[in-house]
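Re-running the complex after MR caught last week's input typo. The corrected sequence lines follow. Everything else is unchanged.
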Amino acid sequence: MSEHKVVRIGFVGLGTVGQGVWKHLEQDQGDLERRLGARIELVRAAVRDPGKKDRRVKIDASKLTTDALAVARDPSLDIVCELMGGIETPKQVALEVLRQGKVLITANKALLCEHGKELFEAARQHNGRIFFEGSVCGGIPIIKALSEGLVANRFPLIYGILNGTCNYILTRIEREGKTFDEILRDAQAKGYADSPPDLDIDGWDTAHKAVILTFLAHGVWVNLKDVEVEGIRKVTSDDIMLAKELGDFKIKLFAIIQRDLKTNKLSIRVHPTLVDERKVLARVDDVFNAVSVTGDVVGTTTYIGRGAGSDATASAVISDIVDAVIGLTGKDRNSKWNIKDYLPSNGTGPEVSLAGPDEIIGKYYFRFMVTDETGILAKIATAFANNGISLSQIRQQPRPQNTSSLIMTTHTTSERSVKNVLAELERTAALKVKPFYLRVADFDE
Amino acid sequence: MSEHKVVRIGFVGLGTVGQGVWKHLEQDQGDLERRLGARIELVRAAVRDPGKKDRRVKIDASKLTTDALAVARDPSLDIVCELMGGIETPKQVALEVLRQGKVLITANKALLCEHGKELFEAARQHNGRIFFEGSVCGGIPIIKALSEGLVANRFPLIYGILNGTCNYILTRIEREGKTFDEILRDAQAKGYADSPPDLDIDGWDTAHKAVILTFLAHGVWVNLKDVEVEGIRKVTSDDIMLAKELGDFKIKLFAIIQRDLKTNKLSIRVHPTLVDERKVLARVDDVFNAVSVTGDVVGTTTYIGRGAGSDATASAVISDIVDAVIGLTGKDRNSKWNIKDYLPSNGTGPEVSLAGPDEIIGKYYFRFMVTDETGILAKIATAFANNGISLSQIRQQPRPQNTSSLIMTTHTTSERSVKNVLAELERTAALKVKPFYLRVADFDE
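Corrected-run output:
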């Protein structure tokens, strides 16, 4: 098979995902060579500690370096996989790779969310390519589905569970009735949650992924500050129980990307959400991820799988590598390559703009912790009435020490009205504890 | 944009799917041209009746012909979409297109199931390409997921609901408690089932799709006669009710493709199956399709969406067209193209062989219609005992006219043992009505 082309790959970062990729490429080298008509050569890797003993793969010491940029700049490489985590060094690495007109493969959602625009611009200028299947939902080929499989569609609605840690914690609160803090500590002890857990728990990791999906679906890089982000810290087992009582709802941390195809107003939100137990996404528990994609041609398609884990993400990175190899080793190498460019670019589609709080509408669930004094309900009800919000269900649940939790669900209203109610209640000083509220997923699909 | 390359497309068959494709390509022409850097030209179409008035798209009469082979042979075309249905003419069309080294796009699962091996061989010989995303599960990009997104994986298990008509009928029997015949007639009146309905109802359409998924996942074209196929005609509302009582099971028509990664024994089956109500696939109702794919690297991923309908399938066909256009219009046209070849080819992977009835194991549900005479249960129980099958649950339900339905579920056993029990009962003439049995989906994922 000496006529086979050779594609040379370097790694920057060789943690669990990188080792998974290396291991599977090594194991399947013969098989891949037969299928691709090209040989994949694992050339070198930049790692923090070349002397580390407990890697899943045995790598010759001569292939290891601590110099990330040396790998990024290595002129002999065709593809560089950036799998190190963090933002600053990965950004330098990415720009180096792209400026040489090479293939960058990354699973780094924070990097893409923060610097995606600049990276794709560098790719365009220097004829480089970026592959990033591993950045969203681990092994679920959602990037490929959105950008290739569903290429005929515009997307009024994309929503889903993008963070396995949050889903695991919510599932366990629901099953065990324990407090958020108890479950979080146990999840950390078991390795299902990082320490500190903020990036996951506070919704930022989900938001990073939502920004990437927005780019794929709508061709714009939305600034993270324009994403409404709320994590799961305030969700209690009471909420989960009451949600069930109120109408067989479960609570999931959703990213929701909505675009009005007439006005092209776009909203991106991350928040705990009440979802009808009969919906498929309500059934997606533990560390699983799921994305529901509604296209104007195809209707709604749903994708479910493990959202993280070294092997799931390795599966995604390898699919990127294979796509790149196919692109790099066409019949005639002079064509350089023919890899699909992911760049829909700001200017090419109809311009989208961000929806304002009047344009984001839905149903809401409120929890008020109230003391047993007369007039509280009147004040709360008046605030809703003043802002034109009509209520659907009301339930009061006694709590220790003369307090109650008062639950209200609303009919359809706007984010603006909800914010106004909260502000009004704050002004009247009616409540000692800030109200907690959840959105209700109530989508026509 | 005069420098843009032009890709010329012809259609053979312009029914609802073809019209959907034509309509969306026309509507989005400008947008697609910007995104692809190439112009897609809808050149001509072969139709049964060029004078037909009620098409969703207005097409100039000069573009229409009744001669399918004239379109297939037209040297000016780059891509031919075969969307006519049937097998013989589509096969001729497909071979003509491929022998000219062109792109064939088809959604014709019967054609691929029947002649896939020959077509892919012709494609290989003449450097043609076959795209067929629309052939399985309508708009769900399952072909792309299996062959590209999950390329790093071997697949011990693929199963799912591949036929919307059957799922719709089973869902309605479950909800309404009516008979199979009543629901089928109503489904036909509503256009959800063909007349005659045999291809769907008897499992053959599901089997066609299973054969295609097997090719993608395992690189072999399995003969339809080697697929165990049972339809849904014998499923009664009693079965559905009893399945629920026995353990919160639903009944779904599944295709199940299993491969033992150690022995490379492969089995492909289509049959009504009991599935735990808590599983996601049990929640996939009405005309929706779903596929669960377990890969050795990625774990289990699941894909859900509308399995048919002109727009869903059009979405899939357009994604094929876009992939082909990208392949056909690389930087340097001299490369001809650089389209991924779907052909894993028989010889390249580890050889698979078909599993025998001893190697297919699982749990089973039996329904016996018995008359109220002593000794029947003893004969049935003896037959199970003689064949080493141990029983899990037993329930008898009185029925009109001195009959009962006797339900039994088994622990894990083999298809061989089950067939032996049935033969033994037939020999002893213990039963007046042939027993009905279902497999239980009990997969480790």
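None of the earlier attempt is carried over here. The two ends of chain A are 51 Å apart (CA to CA). Residues 157 and 258 of chain A are 5 Å apart (CA to CA).
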